[in-house]
Every structure is written in C-alpha cells, then in structure tokens.
TrEMBL record:
Organism of derivation: Chitinophaga sancti
Protein keywords: Oxidoreductase
EC code(s) of this entry: 1.1.1.130
PANTHER family membership: 2,3-DIKETO-L-GULONATE REDUCTASE, OXIDOREDUCTASE-RELATED
This protein's record includes keyword Oxidoreductase: yes
GO MF terms, alphabetically ordered: 3-dehydro-L-gulonate 2-dehydrogenase activity
Protein name stated in the entry: 3-dehydro-L-gulonate 2-dehydrogenase
A Pfam family hit: Ldh_2
Domain of life: Bacteria
Length: 323
C-alpha cells in the first residue's frame, strides 16, 4: 500500500515522542526514517522502526542523550555519543564535519558509543546537499566471516562516498557484505530469493535464501577476500580514530549498540562538474537505459514516492501504528 510522506513522518514523530524524545530530536529522527522509506530503503525506514523502538525500551538507545566533543587534534575531532539515537548523533557529527570543511577545506569527526545510523547514505546526501564531498563509515555487529573462516568475526561495516552535483548528488552507499542484512530482510518479507548468492547456508553451501543467511550470519563479502580485508580495515580505522568499541566488543554484547563512526567532509569551490558529467555519460553510453550511477535510482524512487505516496508493507505499517 502507499502512504503519504507527511503521514509517515507524523506517525514516526508521534511514536518517538511517546518513547521519550523531545520534539526537536523526534523531528530529526522521524524525518530520517521517513526519508529512508521515501527513497526506497524500506529496511532502514518503516521496516526497521519496531526494532529501534525495542532498543529504546531495552535501554540500549537513550533518547535524551546529546553527543559532545571530547578530543580535538587540528581538523580531527572525537565525539562521545553516550548511546544516543544513532541518526541524531550522525546528523550532528556530519554537520560539524561540514562546518570544519567550509572553514578549513576538510573536517573529520569520529564518534564512539553511538548507535545504528540506519541508512548510511543519509549522511552522504547531507554533505553533498551542503556542497561538500562526504565520506563516512561505521562498524557493526559481527555478521560476516573473514575470508577463509566460518565464524562471523567481521561487521558488514557500510561505507558511503558522496559527491555534490547540480542535478542531484552521486552517492555510493554500500555494505561490505554482498547484501546488507536489511536488504535480505526485505527479500525475506517478500518471500523472494536473492538475485545472486549472498552467503552460506547451514550446510556451508552458497545460497540465495535470505532467511538461511540471516540465520547462519555467514554473509558473503563483496569482492570475496577484498571485501573481507576492507571490512577489517574500516573497523581498525574507527577504533584508531575514536578509541571506541570494535566489532569484537560489539558482537560480544549480543546486541548491536555502542558502535563507532567516522564522518569526513571536503569542501572545494570548483569540483569540475563538467568533467564529472563526462564520466557519467561515458559510463552509461553503452546502454543508458540499463546502466545507472550510484544515487540515480534513489533519486528517481524519491520523486515517485513523493508523487504517488510512499510504498509500505501493510503488516509493518500496522505494527508501527500499534507501538
């Protein structure tokens, strides 16, 4: 079914206030949940909201927490998240990175003891819409074995790179697993198989069954050993920058909270947009209708959902309204 964007946001905001958020924070967090569904990332929008609500009820997300800077080295700042709402903390940190970048050219903000930021691409769009290149990454609970192993020792540790552009930004938002766990949940809700093998089943065989992969926590890394190495290095970088909890420590707690994140903004007056346009046209030239660049389909879905109403899973919609 379809629901108007404004109604979706209003319901999220009402529920967040009931869960202990003040009006200002509820507006930001509700907007991010609604934006994620609006942009077609339903597994970090409506479909994730009940999980987020339960984390608040379990005391793992503090709706009253406000992040603050605790350490500064030149253009690099370390912030403490106090286990507040990840979306609010991430918005504040990217805003600060943008502020630094517009003053000095580059801004880097790392935060520890924060929570899931939902769609990482949100903060890439945030940077790009402010005229900055944005790079951000996070660690997560172990959900992927290192190459050559069978135990989930690596997080899928999403990485985001965004570049501003007049029409709309180019935004790459990718997990280190072939399919994010949210995307696999979406396929599972639709009772569909993955288009390509996404991990291993209980017998150690490659499978397209999202339910099996979510059960074994043996997701396939992108680029096989290369994705495994990149996931590891992102965790190492975050721990080095923030002194926060690593994937090992997050996984040991049994629930995903208290993660570390990094937000980088780069500001330069001339980003040579005509040259970038040439890159995009060359990339798509073989088959413009079939080939898309990162962020293109997201923007198209956004316009469709704003015009026609946001697609929602009816069962999940009723579940959220009942919180």
């Amino acid at each position: 079914m379809r629901v108007k964007y404004e109604e979706l946001k209003d319901v999220f905001e009402e529920k967040l206030i009931n869960l202990g958020f003040d009006t200002a924070k509820a507006d930001i967090v509700a907007g991010i949940f609604a934006d994620n569904s609006r942009d077609g990332v339903y597994y970090h929008g409506l479909n994730r909201f009940p999980v987020f609500a339960q984390l608040i009820k379990d005391g793992l997300v503090d709706p009253n927490a406000t992040p603050e800077m605790v350490e500064k080295h030149g253009l690099i700042e370390t912030w403490e998240g106090y286990n507040g709402a990840g979306m609010f903390n991430a918005t504040v940190c990217m805003d600060r990175a943008i502020e630094l970048a517009k003053q000095y050219g580059v801004g880097i903000v790392g935060i520890r003891n924060t929570n899931h930021w939902m769609r990482g691409g949100t903060y890439g769009w945030q940077a790009a819409q402010s005229g900055c290149i944005g790079i951000c990454f996070t660690n997560a609970m172990g959900s992927m074995p290192p190459w050559g192993g069978t135990m989930p020792r690596l997080g899928n540790n999403p990485l985001v790179i965004a570049v501003p552009r007049t029409e709309h930004p180019i935004v790459l938002d990718m997990a280190m697993s072939q399919y994010s766990y949210g995307k696999m949940q979406e396929f599972e809700l639709k009772q569909q198989q993955l288009p390509f093998e996404g991990g291993y089943d209980s017998n150690g065989e490659l499978t397209r069954d999202p339910a099996e992969i979510r059960k074994t926590k043996r997701a396939l890394p992108i680029g096989l050993w290369k994705g495994s190495g990149l996931a590891l290095m992102l965790d190492v970088l975050l721990t080095a920058l923030t002194g926060g909890r690593s994937v090992e420590q997050i996984t040991a707690s049994g629930k995903e909270f208290g993660v570390s994140q990094c937000f980088i903004a780069i500001h330069k007056p001339d980003l040579h947009e005509s040259l970038i346009t040439g890159i995009l046209e060359y990339t798509k030239s073989e088959s413009p209708g079939e080939i898309s660049f990162p962020g293109e389909n997201t923007f198209r879905t956004r316009l469709d959902n704003l015009r026609e109403g946001v697609l929602v899973n009816e069962e999940m919609w009723e579940k959220v309204k009942g919180i």
